[in-house]
Amino acid sequence: MNLLALQISCQEQPIGPHRIIQHLASCRDTAFRKEMVEEGSTLPLSSSLATQYVQELLGEKIVCTLDDGRTVKGTFICVDRLSNIILTNNVVEERTIHTADYSQYKKSSLSPSYIDTQLSMKRHLGQAMIPGSRLVKVELEETTHEKILKSLARESS
Amino acid sequence: MPESNIPASDGKDLPETVGHDFQPKAAMVDITTMLKDAASALTFESPMIHTDSFNLQDSMAALEIMDQKMDCCEVPASAMLIEPTEQQNDKDERMIFPRPAPTGLDDVIDALPWDELTIEDAAFIALENVIRLESLLSGSSVVESTYTCLYSHKVVLEDMHKRLDPCMSLTEQMKAIMQTPTQKGTMAQRSVFASTLLLVELTDLVRGVILNADIYEEEDFGTSTFNIASFRRPSEGFTLKIVLDEISSIEEESTKLDQYDNQDALEAIRLTLSFQKDLMVAVSSLARLSGKTIRKEVEAAQQSIKSAKKKLQDSVPIFARLKEKQSDSVKVILRRTFDPFVNRPLVGNSPVRTIVFRDAIDATNEMIRMVDEVDWCVCKVILKANSLGRIRRMMRPVSSESANILTRSLLVLNLYFDELIFGQYSLPEMIVRYMRQLSHVPDSIVNLPTTDAFLNRLCKPVYDTLKLMALNRNRQRSYLDIMLGDWSALREEAYIADMTNHQDSGSHSELQPHFSVYVISTTIELMDNYVDLGVELELLCNEHELTIAYWYRDFLLSSLLTQLNTMRRYKLDAKKQVHQDAEQFPATVSGGKPQKGGKKKGKNKVSVSNGASNRTNRDDLSITPTVEDIEEEVEYLFLNAKRFLCRGIVRFFVSLNQAGLIKENSFDFTSNEIIYQKRFEPFIDIHQPPYLTYDDYLKGSDFTKLTQNNLVSASSDSFGVAKSLIDQALKHMSKLDPDFLPIQVEEVKQLSKVCVANSVYLQRLKQLTVGGKTNAKLTLDMATHKHFCTIKLG
C-alpha cells in the first residue's frame, strides 16, 4: 500500500504526519521497504521519509515558535544538524512585550492600580536564522502539508 | 514602521494557530518532530538540507535571532532604567525588545513629558536636539540621530500641534477672526514643539540637499529607507512662523524678570531656536538659488550663517552654567524623551551599532565648525571665485579638509545651474580666460568656430574636475579612475583642434598647440592627484610602495612643470610681441570697450566681442603682473617645491636601502612588479605622458653608481631647494587675498617642517653609515603632512 493510498484511507479519520510515518513503519509494507533497502539507504524508514518531507518543504512558508513565545514566519530555505533554520523572503517576527518592562520611571507604575499591558510587536527582516536550541514548534499551512504528502506519495508510487 | 500596539489576546499563551500574512486564520499543522527527525538524521558529510540557490552569503547574511551581537532588538533590560544599576553578568542579563515608537503624547508605554515640562527641561531638550542634528550631519542615519528624539515622531508632533494650535476648534477659529488668537500651552511646551519642528525640518532639508547633489550614495539620510513617516507641515512656512512666534514670545517674557527664575534657560532656548532658524533659512536659500539675484541671496544666506554661528557660540557658556545646576528631574525627563534604541526594529538585518552622541560642549563646537564651513566653502566661493583658477584654489581646501557632506552637497548643487558656473559665469568663457591667464591664446584662435566647438566639448570634463573636489577623498580616487580615461581621449581631439585652428588662422608662425598643452597639463594634474590620494589614504604605505609613489610623482610633476613652462613661454612671447607693437604703433593698441558685466544665458557660447577680447588681451599681457599672475606664480613655485621634495624622499629611501636599513619585501602570491602594475593601472591607457613600466622604475631609481655620501648629499640638496622655493612662495603669499591662496599657510608650514626634518634625519643616516651601524629603527611619519612622509631614524 503506497503512501497516497494510505493518506486517502485516512481521510475519513485525519491523522498528523508523524502518525502516518509510524503507521507506515508498522504496516511492514514489504514492497516499500524492499525499495528502500535496494537504494542502499541505511537510514531508519521514518528518518528517510522525514528527510524527503523536509526537502519538499524547502521554499514553503513556515511558522517557527521560539521558547520565549515569539513566532517567526518566512520562507524555509535551510536546516542543519542542530535544527538551526534559515528563513528568507520578508521574514516577520512577532512577539509580545510587557509595558512593565519600560515603566521603571513611570509614576503610575508605583500605583497599586497600575495594570501591565501587553502589546504585540512585529518586525520585518530580510533573512533570519532561528537557533535550533531555542526552537519549540514549527508549523505549516495544512494545504501545503497535504500538497507535500501528495508529492511524496507520487514519488514513491 | 513596525506594526505595533496590538494587544495580545490573553498575554500569556499565544493561540496555536497564529494569524499570519499569507492566509488569514488558516489551519496549521505541527511538523516540529518531522523537521527535528530530519535534522538529526543529517551527517557531517551532508550537514544541511537547503535549496539549490542557497549559498554561503545567504547563511552569513541571515540575522541570528536572539543573538546579542547580531540581533539589534535584544536590548538589556537595564538600559530602560532611569538610573542603570550595576549590571549583572552579561550572559545572565535579561534582554527585552526596544521600547516601541510612541503613538502620541499619551503613549501607552510611557506618556511623554508634557504637562510637567519646565523651562529648564525645554532648554535641555533643545540642546539635545542640537546634538542630534550634529550627529546627523556627522554621518549618523536618521534613525540613529533625529528620530531618537521621541517628540520628533510624526504622531507626537501631530498631537503637540493639535494641543497647541490656537485655531483648532471652530470656536477658537471664530475667536481668532474677532481678535488676536491667544497662545495655547505653556512656554516650555511651545519651545519643545518649536525646537523639535526645527529638528525635523532641518533633517528633511539636509536630506533633500544631499539627495539632489548626488555625491553620496547611501540612503542613510533618507527617512524613506526606514519607512519613517515625516510630519506633514500644514502649510508653507509653517515651521518658520511657529518658531518666530515663539522667539518673540520668549523675548517678550524674558523682560518680565520676576516671572521666571531661570533667565539662563529662557536665553538658552531663544539662542538655540534662533540658531536653528537661521541655519534653516540659510540652507533653504542656498539650495534654491536661481535667477538674477544670486549674489544678494548668497550674501543674505551668509549673514544668516554668521548670525547662526554667533548665537550658537553665545549659547555655550549659558548651557555650561545650566549644566552645573542641572536638577535630577531634568535627567529623568531627558531619559524619557530620548531613546537610542527606539528605532532598532526599523533597521532590519543591519548589524548592531552602538549609538554614541558627543558631549554637549563638543557637539556644539563641532556644530559651530560645520556652520562656519557653509560660509567659507559655499558662500565665499560663490561670491568671490570669479575665474577658473580661483575656483580651483578655493575648492581645494574643501577637498583636503574633508568638509561636511551638507557643505559639499550645497557646493555641488550650486556649481553649475541656469547653464552657468555658480549661476553667474559662462563656462566656455571661463576656460578661455583661464587659458589666456596661463598661456595667452590669441584672438585669432579664440574666434574660430572649431574653438567654439572644442570649448563646448571641454565643458563637461572641466566641470568634472571641479565636482571632483566636492567628493570625499575615497570617492575622489574612484572617480579619478573614470576621469583619466575621459581626459586621455580629449588629447587627440585637442590636437585636431590645434591643427585645424593653425590652418584656418592662416598663420605662418610655428604651431602653438594651446589646447593640447592645456589638456595634457590637466591630465597630468589628475594623475598626480591620483597618486597623492593613494599616499594619503594609505593605499601606498610601506617603504617600497612610497618610493614608487614619490618616484612616479617626481616624473609627473616634472612633466607638468614642462607643460606649464611651455605655456609661460607662449605668454612671454606674446607679451614681448604686444609691447614691441605698442612701441612701434602706439595708436592701434589703445582704446577698446570695457567688458560688460552680466551673465551669458542659453547655450555656452564664447564671447566674440572684439572689445572684450582686446581688453582682456591687454590685461593678460601687461608688464606689471596682475594679482592672478602672482597667484599662478605661487602655485608654480609650490609645484616645483613638491617635485624636489619627492626627489629628495626617493633618494633618501634609496640611501636607506643601500645602507641595508630597509628590508626587501618577499611575497608568496605576488611580487613588487605586480603591485606596481596594480597601483598605476589607470595610467596604462594614457598616451601622454607615457606610462612608465616597472623596468623604467628600476632603471630610474638605480643609483648604484653613486656612493652613499653622494646620494645623501643629492637628497639633502633636493630638500634644500624645496625649502627655498617654499620660502620664496611665502613672500609672495603675503600680498595675496588668503581666500585665493593655492595652498593654506598651515600646509606651507607643514611642508617646511618635512623638508627640515628629513634633512636632519639625512645627517643622522650619514652618522650611522660612517659608524657602520645598520640596525637603526626606521619610522615613517605622515602626521606632519599627509602627503609627504618624514623618515625618522631612531
TrEMBL record, chain A:
Name of the protein: LSM domain containing protein
Annotated source species: Nitzschia inconspicua
InterPro entries given in the database record: Sm_dom_euk/arc, snRNP_SmB/NAA38-like
Domain named Sm: residues: 52-140
Coiled coil (residue ranges): none
Highest taxon of source: Eukaryota
UniProtKB/TrEMBL annotation, chain B:
Keyword annotations of the record: Cytoplasm
Transmembrane listed as a keyword: no
Domain NAA35-like N-terminal as annotated: residue spans: 48-232
UniProt similarity note: Belongs to the MAK10 family.
A Pfam family this chain is assigned to: TPR_NAA35
Listed name of the protein: Acetyltransferase
Subcellular location, principal: cytoplasm
Keyword flag Cytoplasm: yes
Family annotation (InterPro entries): NAA35-like_N (IPR057983), Naa35_N (IPR007244), TPR_NAA35 (IPR057982)
Domain NAA35-like TPR repeats: 378-791
Region Disordered, annotated ranges: 583-620
An annotated GO cellular component: NatC complex
Subcellular location field: Cytoplasm
Transmembrane segments: none
Native species: Nitzschia inconspicua
